[in-house]
Amino acid sequence: MLVQTEENGNLSESTKIAGSGTPLTRCQTLNSPLNQAKTVGIIGGVSVFSTLIFLEKLVWWSSRNGEDCVPFIVCNDPVISRELSIQSALVNGELDDETRTKYEMTAESLRRKRAFLEQSGVHCIVMPCHISEMWHSEVSEGCSVPFLSIGDCVARDLKEAELKPLEAGSKNFEVVLPDKATVQHILNPAIEALNRKDVDGARNLLRVAVQVLLMRAANTVILATDEFQGLLPHDDPLLKKCIDPMDALALSTLKWARST
């Protein structure tokens, strides 16, 4: 079930159950996802494409052995992409009064989406967007159902992989970030290439960035940006050294559904 809301978090007047012509509020039958104990609520983020990729992963992982797909509700707000545009300022540490106000407004907007999903009867919420993840602590606070975090899901995957632990650090793992030169001369041009629809150029630059991190003794590279999702082909050898956080989130969501 896909649900689009207005900026205030309310249902759009045109919201219908696909193919039924019936308003959502009149379709809460016994077989509706709203009444199923394992229903997952999904808050769409800056990119509808990223949300669809997550849904594809969730459907594939949950039904690949002939089992029924996990029921889900997607709450997508087209306004959120504009609100999330402050990401670049946050990354650069530029949190002036205006930016802080926008940050808090975005947090409140995401909380309204969370409240809408809670009221819809979901039993777990996820937010499959790397940018939205910055607001996870604010949005998940006080949530009445489990609210999975992309970062926590990836950390569990790394722990299960038994990578090199440290006494202190992020989830006891040593984190190696791309240096300034890699960001300026490889990663930023890769995103610019994608904006120009130059997929091959972006893919080649991403390969270089991954190789740079591996040369710096990284065991695994986390592709933690929405733009790079699905950029490397499935048969690319470098993928064996990479983790897609959306895979980790989808698998954790499925694990939750099967444990309830």
Fold and architecture overview:
GO terms for molecular function: isomerase activity. With 260 residues, the protein is an alpha/beta fold. It folds into 2 domains: 2-154 and 247-259, Rossmann fold (3-Layer(aba) Sandwich); 166-244, no CATH class. Helices cover 43% and strands 10% of the residues. The chain contains 9 helices and 7 strands, in the order E-E-H-E-H-H-H-E-H-H-E-H-H-E-E-H. It has helices at 48-63, 80-83, 87-91, 97-120, 136-140, 150-160, 180-195, 199-215, 245-259; strands at residues 2-4, 40-43, 72-76, 124-126, 165-170, 221-222, 242-243. Helix 1 links the parallel strand 2 and strand 3 (72-76). Helix 1 (48-63) crosses helix 9 (245-259), helix 6 (150-160) packs across helix 9 and helix 7 runs antiparallel to helix 8 (199-215). It starts with a strand and ends with a helix.
List its salient traits.
single chain; 260 residues; alpha/beta; Rossmann fold; 2 domains; four-stranded parallel beta sheet; 43% helix
Give a brief rundown of this model.
This protein has 260 residues and is α/β, with parallel strands linked by helices.
